[in-house]
Amino acid sequence: MDESELQITPTVWNHIDFIEDPKNFTYNEFFSTYMIGNAPCLFSSKFTQSWGSRKSWVTSDNKPNWHYLLQNFGDAVVPVANCDVKEYNANPKEQIPLREFISYWREYTENGCQSPRGCLYLKDWHMTREFLDHDVYETPAYFSSDWLNEYWDAIAEDDYRFVYMGPAGSWTPFHADVFRSYSWSANICGRKKWLLFPPGQEEYLRDCHGCLPYDVTSPTLQDANLYPNYSRCCPPLEVIQEAGEIIFVPSVWHHQVYNMEDTISVNHNWVNGCNVSVMWSFLQAELGAVQKEIGEWKETMEGWDRHCQIIMKSCTGIDYKEFYTFLKMIAERRIQDLEKGPPDSPSEGSLDVMVPGPQHARFDIRKIAEVLTLLMSNEDFQKLDKETLDPPPGEFLSRLQKLIERKSCT
Ligand SMILES: O=C(O)CCC(=O)C(=O)O
Ligand SMILES: [Fe+2]
Q1: In Å, how far from its chain's centre is CA 315?
Q2: Chain-centre distance of CA 357, in angstroms?
Q3: What is the pLDDT of residue 356?
Q4: What is the pTM assigned to this prediction?
């Protein structure tokens, strides 16, 4: 599956599957129907019932437990966006203590959702990284094949695990997720409204300059001079997510999100063998955009290709060399897992287990070999300084291919 294949998924979605019972929903089902199928779904609150945060962060009337949050995390400095101010299709952010955000929030609510500071939204707080020993939530096993967090945890640089907290009316503008990853998002308390567009529909939402909108509900989209293809766009899939429920947002599904009441959520972005080729398509598009931007210097600037990679890294968070390192690290870890010994779990021959096992490791290796093959045939990748790629990609790929033949990965 790559981005071009995603374009031909059905366009009209007016329904989201609701997964009611954890006992009747296997990893295999999630893997094949939702991750491979790149289709959204909504998990019932039974899936989050045992989480510490569902108890201690919420009062008996289902509101945020200010007292608990202040006592445990009040001094933490958190990123806060102003939903009333638009800055390049996003909202400007500031860093303030959680204590200050909560006192703002309480005042905002008491004043009928008004404040001279505007509507503030705490978002993208790397809370679990800061408070490792707190019982907040457990990542459901369905989302456990997560190469992004596995890689960034290992190099101890970053992670893609976030906490969001916002009053009724706070919202997230139209976007698709980082690296075109999957996302799961669970409401600890409160409700959200999601407007979801299947891959490809965003092309009809571009304005006459080719830019995507900030707010897909804005009446300006009806102006055919400004948004010439808007009338061809299907209506969004609208999903109301209740307290405790988890939404799965597939790759490249653009979305806009509203908090309908005081809401706290946790979310992870993740990539694995099912969508890594989508990430690779995205990285090529990002490099293409950089190359276009500084195209006029191509003939005169020494090391133009190297500069494009540097700019890409600073805008996108990753360059081609790091993407190779990322694939290599995940593959090496899977090889190690397989070498640890003969498979001892009943998972052999089946993906119908809750923890990724040997079958999954082999699937991962096969997918990495596929993307590595694409990477090696890419002109811009071929231009990278080979000395810095260790082991050389050709050598690494043939090692993977030998392993695949030997283990006859399916
Ligand atoms: O909850 C929000 O405001 C945005 C969340 C989001 O965009 C995501 O989980 O991908
Ligand atoms: Fe998102």
Answers
A1: 17
A2: 23
A3: 64
A4: 0.94
